[in-house]
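Quick one, probably user error.
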């Protein structure tokens, strides 16, 4: 089998093609033989045979057979199209291919085909008759057996681009292909007759259309020549006209752009509307309308990228690799929209960038914090002065790619106003079933967003509307342990800070023990953002000293308060003094887990409840439930409330607190107070409580247990239904804690010795 690469040439099935024998040998690097099969492959660009790959060819070729051959010429009869699957270039520059057959769609009757062929021959003979050699050409034309043979014979005369010639081959429909052939040939014939307008006066109506197209092409050609000769004199209108043609817009968008361009021509440069129309067309032409090809994904390489950029986050990386694997198998964006939820500084935004690097796609970040106008998502209508596209389409325009990785950052910070609900506008954007026809008000035409991989980030789920949340798959980013923070600081944060400040490793070193001190005493956070700020501060101080002439800069624990310009932070720590009515609880905050002390006190009064510490409505309800539960469990001891008020306080008083997970702690604290039995200070607990005394599950368990371990707690009571969440807790935390699952309040009271066993 002989493989022949061709460029800018029409090769169709059911046609005869003549080659000079020498030229055919040059193209194929093989000696032709009678009855040998030949495959014509169409090059995208004119290239030599050396180092040709599959990407250099269009995916469709034509197969034929050598029927005649002499010393000078070779006649090849083509018969079918093929789909190119694999291609290899051998050392001797010969090409080997793997292909499958591609069937034609025979949607044209034999009568119509015969009639069109007859008319085409007649038109060609009429054209050739004006030349002296017209009689010889007449015999040649009458020998043509198919439309394909005609178009292949006059291929070099036609005013067709390389892409248009391939489009003929690509078309499956016989009726559509013959229509394209007919159009191209009549264009050629009419173009040749433009100089003799009188002869065309009697042409049929459809030929007038071909004439117009031919003239437009000729004008366009001349205009392009002028633009190349005088590039500085190209007008805005002409520049936009060129951009519109090259943009590859959809039919709907093309129509809208042409409409705006015509208005721009009519208005003139002095019109107030001229600038608005120019901005609109400039934006429309900057969008990536053409579908981007997804690059082959190496899952092992993607895993290496994620591991090199981020330490820990094993569960998160596992889910991301699953998403990437599905996308590689389906060859398209598939699966749920990912929502990364976690405290600030846990790596949500940065891992999204790593995903883009792993997929070899463009990265776009859109900040949604504080957005309260629907137009920020969907764009402004062009009836407004200063109208702009929405952030989604603007980000897409800047990326220049239709399959980018788009991060919608801080989606939980969206808010509503009289200007609409931006969260509702995102419902369409984040729905794979709807976003293929997303319409920006500024564009006023639909755009396909289905190839974009959307990733959202949030610190909390509380403020995200339920319909929007249902469209996303939540992936939690738990806080880092002390050991994880140490590794992140050593591998990423410190080298980045030193590089940013221009400090070499020989000029400053921070030992592990010093990094641990910075982490433990100068940061309170679940992530590493505050740690990064501390390291940046140290590097800046080091830079000052190095510029002043010091060879190196040494950091010690004693120098840290002066270098960082701050005292060591005071962490909440268990109180060694055992007093009735004081119990340690565990809370989740946006900065991670924290230990929370519940303090209760009886004062003379008449059964009033005093609550301080800025407790929210949910926590106030937990106080009422705890009081009722304790009164029912300890009726005798509860008699004390007749002559006393109970004061419940949760430090620190200036910090707002809310949530149901303090129920078990409140119940234990009140029970401890009225029974006058102190709870061991090394105990801590978390869980919601019902009026039946049942301990119900809570959220944020990993962060809470890390806070307990950091604060010196030894034993923690958790709801039994949260046992499955322990798999997300780091081993070093679990090893230092005694974790007791409970299902009833009575179990906690027995373990704390408030109730006798």
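Nope, works fine. Designed sequence:
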């Amino acid at each position: 089998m002989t493989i022949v690469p061709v460029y800018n040439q029409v090769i169709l099935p059911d046609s005869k093609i003549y080659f000079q024998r020498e030229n055919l040998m040059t193209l194929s690097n093989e000696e032709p033989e009678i009855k040998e099969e030949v495959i014509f492959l169409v090059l995208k660009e004119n290239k030599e045979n050396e180092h040709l790959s599959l990407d250099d060819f269009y995916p469709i070729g034509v197969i034929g057979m050598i029927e005649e051959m002499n010393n000078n010429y070779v006649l090849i009869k083509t018969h079918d199209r093929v789909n190119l699957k694999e291609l290899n270039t051998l050392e001797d520059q010969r090409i080997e291919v793997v292909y499958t057959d591609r069937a034609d769609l025979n949607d044209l009757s034999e009568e119509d085909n015969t009639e069109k062929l007859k008319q085409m021959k007649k038109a060609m003979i009429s054209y050739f008759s004006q030349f002296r050699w017209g009689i010889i050409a007449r015999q040649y034309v009458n020998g043509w057996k198919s439309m394909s043979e005609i178009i292949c014979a006059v291929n070099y005369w036609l005013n067709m681009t390389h892409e248009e010639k391939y489009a003929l081959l690509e078309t499956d429909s016989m009726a559509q292909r013959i229509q394209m052939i007919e159009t191209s040939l009549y264009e050629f014939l009419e173009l040749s007759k433009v100089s003799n307008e009188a002869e065309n006066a009697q042409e049929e109506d459809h030929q007038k259309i071909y004439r117009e197209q031919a003239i437009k092409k000729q004008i366009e050609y001349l205009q392009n020549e002028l633009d190349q000769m005088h590039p500085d004199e190209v007008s805005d209108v002409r520049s936009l006209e060129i951009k519109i043609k090259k943009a590859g817009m959809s039919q709907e968008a093309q129509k809208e752009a042409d409409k705006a361009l015509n208005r721009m021509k009519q208005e003139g440069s002095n019109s107030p509307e001229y600038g608005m129309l120019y901005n609109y067309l400039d934006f429309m032409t900057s969008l990536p309308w053409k579908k981007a090809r997804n690059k082959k994904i190496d899952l092992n390489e993607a895993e290496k990228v994620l591991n090199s950029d981020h330490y820990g986050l094993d569960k998160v990386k596992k889910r991301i690799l699953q998403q990437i694997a599905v996308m590689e198998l389906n060859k398209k964006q598939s699966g749920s929209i990912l929502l990364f939820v976690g405290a600030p500084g846990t790596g949500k935004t940065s891992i999204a960038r790593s995903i883009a690097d792993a997929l070899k796609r463009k990265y776009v970040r859109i900040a949604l914090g504080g957005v309260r106008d629907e137009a920020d998502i969907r764009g402004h209508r062009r009836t407004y002065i200063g109208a702009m596209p929405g952030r989604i389409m603007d980000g897409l325009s800047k990326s220049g790619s239709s399959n980018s990785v788009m991060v919608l950052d801080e989606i939980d910070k969206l808010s509503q106003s009289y200007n609409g609900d931006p969260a509702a506008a995102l419902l369409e954007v984040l729905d794979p079933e709807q976003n293929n026809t997303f319409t920006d008000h500024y564009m006023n035409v639909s755009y396909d967003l289905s190839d974009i991989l959307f990733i959202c980030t949030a610190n909390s789920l509380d403020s995200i509307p339920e319909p929007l949340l249902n469209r996303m798959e939540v992936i939690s980013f738990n806080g880092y342990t002390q050991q994880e923070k140490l590794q992140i600081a050593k591998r990423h944060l410190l080298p980045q800070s030193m590089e940013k400040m221009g400090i070499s490793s020989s000029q400053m070193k921070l030992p592990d023990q010093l990094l641990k001190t910075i982490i433990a005493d100068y940061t309170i956070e679940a992530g590493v953002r505050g740690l990064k700020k501390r390291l940046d501060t140290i590097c800046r101080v080091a830079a000052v000293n190095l510029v002043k002439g010091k060879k190196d800069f040494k950091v010690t624990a004693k120098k840290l308060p002066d270098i960082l310009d701050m005292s060591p932070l005071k962490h909440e720590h268990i109180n060694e003094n055992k007093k009735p009515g004081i119990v340690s609880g565990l809370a989740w905050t946006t900065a991670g887990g924290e230990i929370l002390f519940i303090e209760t006190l009886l004062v003379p009064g008449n059964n009033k409840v005093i609550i301080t510490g800025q407790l929210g409505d949910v926590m106030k309800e937990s106080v009422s439930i705890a009081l009722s539960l304790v009164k029912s469990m300890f009726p005798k001891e509860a008699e004390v409330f007749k002559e006393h008020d109970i004061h419940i306080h949760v430090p620190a008083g200036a910090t707002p607190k809310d949530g149901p997970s303090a129920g078990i702690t409140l119940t234990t604290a009140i029970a401890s107070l009225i029974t006058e039995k102190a709870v061991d200070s090394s105990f801590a607990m978390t869980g919601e409580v019902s009026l039946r005394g049942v301990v119900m599950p809570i959220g944020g368990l990993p962060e809470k247990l890390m806070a307990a371990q950091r604060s010196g707690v030894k034993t923690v009571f958790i709801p039994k239904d949260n046992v499955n969440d322990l798999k997300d807790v780091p081993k070093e935390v679990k090893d230092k804690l005694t974790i007791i699952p409970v299902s009833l309040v009575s179990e906690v009271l027995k373990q704390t010795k408030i109730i006798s066993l």
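The radius of gyration is 38 Å.
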